[in-house]
């Protein structure tokens, strides 16, 4: 893929991911303000009783609709942040890793971490929705909590890759000395 295309794709995916995050944050803040619990609170729930307490707070139809929409909208956010972080790793690799060697291979492997995080996020949401519809169990709550922890580790790796990509973006966009001399 040409470098210009890579940078443009990363820019748009990152902007859309930030926009989707803003929408999720707004919805979750409104839900938490109205009920005392937001969808983010599900991530710290570790038992069936914790999930039931949150679900009971959402029993009013309006709150249940917001919670359901937030869980569903999160599925749009997942590929946006996963791919944004993936491209972040590729940009950082192109900007800072030599054309061959261990550092380049490491960046290739790190690029997959955010994608794994998005898959963990999908599993987490599926488990939460299943408990919302079918009833919570301690086993499913423990699985959802593990998926959340794995997702968060991958997400933090993605944020580090995003920071590296920001630096790499400006390095790759800067005119090269050879280009400046030739002009």
Structural overview:
- The protein is mostly helical and about 180 residues long.
- Helices cover about 85% and strands about 0% of the residues.
- The protein has one domain.
- The radius of gyration is 20 Å and the shape is elongated.
- The two termini are about 25 Å apart.
Overall body shape: elongated
Strand content: under 5%
- State Rg: 20 Å
Number of helices: 6
Q: How many domain modules? A: 1
Overall mean pLDDT score? 91
Helix content: over 70%
- What is the ordering of alpha helices and beta strands? HHHHHH
Class inferred from helices and paired strands: mainly alpha
Low-confidence stretches: none
Largest sheet, if any? none
Distance between the termini: 27 Å
Total DSSP E strands = 0
Oligomer state of the chains in this structure = single chain
Topology, please?
Elements lengths: L2 H33 L12 H10 L3 H36 L5 H33 L3 H36 L3 H6 L1
Helix pairs in contact: 1-3, 3-4, 3-5, 4-5
Quickly list its features.
single chain, 183 residues, mainly alpha, 6 helices, 84% helix, elongated
Structure at a glance:
With 183 residues, the protein is mostly helical. Helices cover 84% and strands 0% of the residues.
């Amino acid at each position: 893929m040409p470098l210009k295309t890579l940078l443009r794709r990363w820019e748009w995916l990152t902007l859309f991911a930030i926009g989707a995050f803003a929408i999720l944050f707004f919805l979750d803040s409104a839900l938490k303000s109205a009920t005392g619990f937001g969808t983010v609170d599900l991530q710290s729930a570790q038992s069936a009783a914790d999930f039931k307490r949150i679900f009971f707070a959402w029993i009013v139809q309006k709150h249940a609709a917001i919670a359901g929409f937030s869980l569903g909208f999160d599925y749009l956010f997942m590929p946006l942040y996963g791919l944004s972080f993936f491209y972040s790793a590729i940009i950082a690799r192109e900007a800072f890793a030599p054309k061959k060697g261990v550092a380049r291979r490491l960046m290739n492997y790190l690029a997959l971490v955010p994608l794994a995080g998005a898959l963990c996020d999908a599993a987490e949401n599926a488990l939460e929705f299943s408990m919302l519809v079918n009833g919570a169990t301690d086993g499913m709550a423990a699985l959802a909590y593990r998926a959340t922890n794995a997702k968060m580790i991958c997400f933090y790796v993605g944020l580090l890759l995003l920071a590296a990509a920001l630096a790499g973006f400006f390095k790759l966009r800067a005119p090269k000395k050879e280009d400046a001399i030739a002009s």
